[in-house]
Amino acid sequence: MSSLVLENLSYQYNGTAVIEGLDLTVAKDEIVCLLGASGCGKTTTLKAIAGLITAQQGKVFIDAKLISDEQRFLAPEHRNIGMMFQDYALFPHLTVADNIAFGLTKMSKAQKQQRVNEMLELVHLVGCAERFPHQLSGGQQQRVAIARALAYNPSLLLLDEPFSNIDTQVRFELIADIRRIIKNQQVSAVFVTHSKEEAFAFADTLAIMDCGKIVQQGTPEQLFNTPNSKVVAEFLGQGIYLDAEALTATEYTTAFGRVESLLAQSHAKHVGQLYVRPHHLELMPLQPQSSPANTVTILNRRFVGSHFVYKVIIAGQEIDVAAQLGQSFLVNDDVTIRITPHTVNFFAE
Ligand SMILES: Nc1ncnc2c1ncn2[C@@H]1O[C@H](COP(=O)(O)OP(=O)(O)OP(=O)(O)O)[C@@H](O)[C@H]1O
């Protein structure tokens, strides 16, 4: 059974469509990340799930129960959803224990105490129960927020940019920690971010949003290796487009010579473009057989600790390419470039 199903959801702010015919499925115990450019409608989607706004069209099901459509609307407090929104900060005048116990209105005092203790243990904050939020670090505050959201056993958790105020140094530790907590509680979650690094680290599957719709949903590897559109390919990482023709299921011709795909793909149309990412490009000292197309000039170089990254122009597009270990070029050097065999992203015209 799916934890959450959105069917053909649409929402407009003052007549302007923000979500348009959006479909999304979240399986039981799955963490799905809504990922997309700023303003594409991620937060609006979360608000429609939570019941903080009413979608003008479409259906929302939680645990197979219809909770909203054009006729029905279940109030947010009856949806059994835990929320961790950026602007739903902790109550500053309540202790950590009281913040966690806040939603536990139906429990006796002893039950509340037991649940708070369990939550403190889960988020590794035993000993902080009597502190106030300002006496905690940003990461500790987020752990209290997740404990509060999980305390009453919600069937679904919504998280809106929960890590955006956390220092980069500790952010990925916190992400791993909160993922562990959510998995431990076996709750489904929808998480919003515009950072693909956070999404890769936190989610089981990604749902890429564009123009108010989910354009592709899958594991990070599926989306990165086989994006179904240029929007998804570009969103998940830098690259360049090369005019190409598909010769067979695994072979393409380009101005740079033949490119081999490690995955056989069938194409209805054979003329289009390849999207090539930097790590599929290899720079090497100028080879005697290098054609003009395979020869590029180093525009600048940047030392990043273990190796250099070189800026070059290929087919009129700038790209940063990491050199092989131990290889070093100078600015203005002409070098040979080659495209290594990889899972090719081909978009037909
Ligand atoms: N209360 C509002 N009134 C009018 N327009 C709004 C309102 N809230 C959001 N919008 C608009 O709706 C669109 C989607 O906003 P939303 O906050 O859902 O985007 P988002 O993908 O979460 O963006 P971000 O990554 O920047 O947080 C934006 O163009 C935004 O300007």
UniProtKB/TrEMBL annotation:
SMART domains: AAA (SM00382). The keyword Transit peptide does not apply. Residues 4-236 form the ABC transporter domain. The keyword Phosphoprotein does not apply. Keywords: ATP-binding, Cell membrane, Ion transport, Iron, Iron transport, Membrane, Nucleotide-binding, Transport. SUPFAM superfamilies: MOP-like, P-loop containing nucleoside triphosphate hydrolases. One of its GO terms (molecular function) is ATP binding. This is ABC transporter ATP-binding protein. PROSITE patterns: ABC_TRANSPORTER_1 (PS00211), ABC_TRANSPORTER_2 (PS50893). InterPro entries: AAA+_ATPase, ABC_SmlMolc_Importer, ABC_transporter-like_ATP-bd, ABC_transporter-like_CS, ABC_transpr_FbpC, Mo/tungstate-bd_C_term_dom, P-loop_NTPase.
